[in-house]
Design a protein that fits this description.
Nucleotidyltransferase, domain 5, five-stranded mixed beta sheet, 4 helices, 5 strands, 20% strand
Length: 128
């Protein structure tokens, strides 16, 4: 009888030492496509974009801004459109500034890009 009690106690100690007291993981209900592979297609406006291009020109003390070829009426509109664009994709930006643009405008646009979280901001080289 004594050896059987010893074996039971050893088994009890073995199971206590090897037992895991963590909560079991629970599965989350998900719906997957029938093929088992999820596909993501980016919105049409960023499918062909490789970078964000901001053109700055100045005519009669008025700043002319173009974002990827589309005109922006002000720096505030540029900020709003950049914010929408950055929610879709993380792209590098290129500032193409003509020589007649005042440096204050350039700094304002550059700071706007930095405040929105753009990390790769480059200046385009002048054409020769």
């Amino acid at each position: 009888m004594t050896p059987m009690i010893d074996v039971v106690f050893q088994l009890l100690i073995f199971f206590l030492c090897t037992a895991s007291f963590q909560m079991a993981e629970q599965s989350l209900a998900t719906t997957l496509p029938p093929t088992g592979a999820a596909t993501y297609s980016p919105p049409k406006e960023i499918q062909e974009l490789e970078l964000i291009r901001i053109d700055l020109r100045q005519r009669d003390r008025n700043l002319l801004i173009r974002l990827n070829g589309n005109p922006c009426s002000s720096v505030n509109e540029l900020r709003d459109r950049l914010r929408q664009l950055l929610t879709l994709a993380e792209l590098p930006a290129v500032l193409d500034v003509s020589s007649e643009v005042e440096i204050g405008h350039v700094v304002t646009v550059y700071d706007t890009c930095l405040n929105l979280g753009l990390k790769n901001i480059h200046f385009a080289a002048p054409e020769r």
